[in-house]
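Ligand: NAP. Inputs:
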Amino acid sequence: MKTRSLGPFTVSCIGAGCMSLSHGYGPPPAPADAARVLNRALDLGYTLIDTAALYGFGANETLVGEAIGHRRGEYVLASKGGIFKNDAGVREIDGRPETLRRSIDASLQRLRTDVIDLYYLHRWDKKVPIEDSMGALADAVSAGKVRTLGLSEVSAGTLRRAHAVHPITAVQSEYSLWTRNPEIEILAACRELGVGFVAFSPLARQYLTGRLTDVTRLAEGDLRRAMPRFTETNYAGNLGLLPAYEALAERVGVTPAQLALAWVLAKGEDIVPIPGTTRIEHLEENAGAAEVELTAEVIAALDDLINEHTVHGPRYNARNQREVDSAEFAHHLLSE
Ligand SMILES: NC(=O)c1ccc[n+]([C@@H]2O[C@H](COP(=O)([O-])OP(=O)(O)OC[C@H]3O[C@@H](n4cnc5c(N)ncnc54)[C@H](OP(=O)(O)O)[C@@H]3O)[C@@H](O)[C@H]2O)c1
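Predicted complex:
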C-alpha cells in the first residue's frame, strides 16, 4: 500500500481501526475470526494498527497482542488511554497522571510489547489540567514505554498547551464527508505545528458505504443507536443524499466506501484515515482506495453534496458531546 509520514513513522496511507473487532457495532466476531482479520490486514500492507484501552475495556488490546504480537516488527502500534471502566463498571474519562501511568503498563502487557509507538490521550479530562496529563505521558516517553504522543478530539487551544509540554505527533478526530468539524480549526492548527492528523470513522460508521440502509435493525447496544444521525427520522434524511453519492462513485469507477476514503486522502498528505471492519473482504476493498486519485471536480461535487449543512442531525448526543473539547458544539448551534 502507498505510505504517508506520521511524525517519525512511515505508515500505510490507510490504517486499520480495530475498535469494532471487540466493541461498538453489535456483537463482535469470535476472537479467532478477529485474529484472521488482523493478520490479513498486515498481509495487505496495513501498517498502522489503532486500538485503545477503552475498546472492550482491554479486550481489544489483548486481541491485538494475541493475534499479531508475534508480528510486532511489521506495524506501527497506536493505542489510547484516558477512558476506562471505573470501580462501578462504568465508562469514565480519567486523565489523572497516576491513572495514565497504571494504564500504560497494563496496555503494554495486553499488547505483548515493550513499547507503544503512538499513545493518545483518548479524551482530555476537563477536571485535570492538560499539562498534568501530558506530564505523565511525557514521563512514559522518557521511560521508553511509549515512543510518541497524540491527542484525540481536542480543540486547537488544548493542542497548543499540550504541544508546549511535549511535542505531539498526531491528533485523532472524526473526519469524513459528514463530519467536517476538523475543518473549523484543528486541521489548520496541526499544519501550523507540524502535527499529523488521523481521521477516525472515515466511513461515517458505515453510512458512506451505502450498506447500512435500515437503522431499526442495529443491534441492542450498538453505539450508533445513541447517535442522532442514526435515528430513524434523521437517517431517512441522510439516506436521501446517497443516490447522488453512489452515482458519483459509479462515475469514478470505485465503490462508495472507496470514494469516502479517497475523499479523506485527498484532503491532505498529512491525513491518515483508519477505517474499521470485521470483514476481510471489506479490508481488501478499503485498501483499494489507496490507489484512487480524485479530480478536483469530483472533490468539489462531494464537498457540495454531503457536508455539515446537508447532513441531518448532530454527530453526538449531548452526553458524548460534553466529552469532546472543541468549537464544534457552538458551531453546530450556529448552523442550526
Ligand atoms: N479516537 C476516538 O475517539 C475514536 C472513536 C471512534 C473510532 N475510532 C477509531 O477509528 C476506527 C474506525 O472508526 P469506526 O469503526 O467507528 O467507523 P468507520 O470506519 O467509519 O466505519 C466502520 C463501519 O463500516 C463498516 N465497513 C467498513 N468497511 C466497509 C466496506 N468496505 N463496506 C461496507 N461496510 C464497511 C463496518 O462494518 P463491517 O465490520 O461489516 O465491515 C463498520 O460498521 C475505529 O476502529 C477506532 O480505531 C476512534
